[in-house]
Amino acid sequence: MFFGRKKPLDAILATAEKKSLHRTLGAFQLTMLGIGAVIGTGIFVLTAEAAQKAGPGMMISFVIAGLVCAVAALCYAEMAAMVPVSGSAYTYSYAVMGELLAWMVGWALILEYAVAAGAVSVGWSGYVVGLIEHAFAIDIPDTLVLGPFDGGMINLPAMAIAGLVTWLLVLGTKESATVNAVLVAIKVAALCLFIVLAVPVMNMEKFTPFMPLGFGGVSAAAASIFFAYVGFDAVSTAAEETKNPQRNMPIGLIGSLAICTIFYLLVAAGVIGTVGGQPVLGPGGEALEPGSRELAAQCALISDNAVTCSKEALAWTLRQIGWPQIGNLIGLAAGLALPSVILMMMFGQTRIFFVMSRDGLLPQAFSKIHPRYNTPHVITVITGIAVALFAAFFPVGQLANISNSGTLFAFAAVSIAVMILRQTEPTRKRPFRTPALYLTAPIAVAGCAYLFWSLDEKSKLLFFVWAAIGLVVYFLYSRSRSHVGRGIVDVPETDGDVPPGPVPPLPTGL
């Protein structure tokens, strides 16, 4: 019965019109937002994590993760163009598979966005701390810049950047997008500089052995590296704030993914071909988990003289090949640019909370709009506090894997929803149609399942625990307060003079 409680697509579009966000973003801004969300911790930081799991075989891991993300992006593009409202996978699932599954998708997206923002904050901290230490020849105590799993106590810089981004998001979407465009330019320039300096001096012998831990290591690395591609989903959450979304959403989604994939492969090849990428093994030759106390101890024995030990892989690589000052510049660029990723992840999280609140599944206060800035400030501040706490105490790799578990679940749900909607509403206008849908979508679902089961056991366990908590919250709170369940469903203007819901329209201008 809960699977049958659906919100019609026409009602979703009507709700968005009556309680809407302001449309200010075009195709170029969306593509920049996508690049800003995608290129970040995945390539600046998780390169070292992937090398620890797969060695040079992480090149294959990037391809596997990119292919899964590409087929999922094609499914997302059809849904985002057809249903141009905020909420991403949550909104699509509500229309197609019912409220209970939509709630679970929205609940899983909390793992994707909030935890991911924490992971990027930790990655930013690693680069900024490394830059300060090398540029000014000082040693900052690990106690204050590393979490307890990495040998410290609390990561204060990561908490600080999460707070700064929260403040920026409260100010407004247009301002955030403008700042983001500048940061994306810095980030892309830094990666281009790295490629120019590293790729020409590659040594192909560094790629041997190519898969030191076998294909299992490649699969595990692909599951982690998937984190590097998920930013395009955050772009789809901005559909309600996009001008001409039927045209611009597919451009923003697929264009940003294609550009980022090229960068990833070139940068990864530059790292491996110059300083190598063999994993650091334990005393008995066993594989060590990235972000673990065991790896930290083993790295200390070799004076961190391996890229897999570095918290700032690209800057460390350039210093090793004779470009110390350029390495510092890369660290500076990462310090300036990674906040754009945090911004987009937190942007996506707050907009999903906004829509779930608008549907009655979360408290009404979550969709409260600031009287001056016209932004959902209450949920933005709550999200910022959660992100800061994640960043303060957990290592980047573990946060990335936990985030991936929620992301993969949501991506699979959207891929299934597209197929169902083709059958149930074949005549609905589709400005963008997923090519070879009944081949593309099943590949996306199977790819998501493969990457999910390639995650570490802790991440999978945490996902199921989080899902169980979500079910409890739904049945104790959300089920009885759902607007759809109470019969409060907006209709298009042509079907009624007054919206049946008791909630008045909110001010626009976000």
TrEMBL record:
Gene3D superfamilies associated with the record: Amino acid/polyamine transporter I
Membrane topology according to the record: Multi-pass membrane protein
Principal location listed in the UniProt entry: membrane
Bias (Pro residues) ranges: 499-510
Subcellular location: Membrane
InterPro entries: AA/rel_permease1
Transmembrane portions of the chain: 27-46, 58-77, 89-110, 154-172, 179-201, 213-232, 253-275, 326-348, 378-400, 406-424, 436-455, 461-477
Disordered: annotated segments: 491-510
Any single GO CC term annotated in Swiss-Prot or TrEMBL for this entry: membrane
A molecular-function term among this protein's GO annotations: amino acid transmembrane transporter activity
Protein name in UniProt: Amino acid permease
Keyword set, alphabetical order: Membrane, Transmembrane, Transmembrane helix, Transport
Pfam families cross-referenced by the UniProt entry: AA_permease_2 (PF13520)
Record organism: Sphingomonas changnyeongensis
Keyword Transmembrane attached: yes
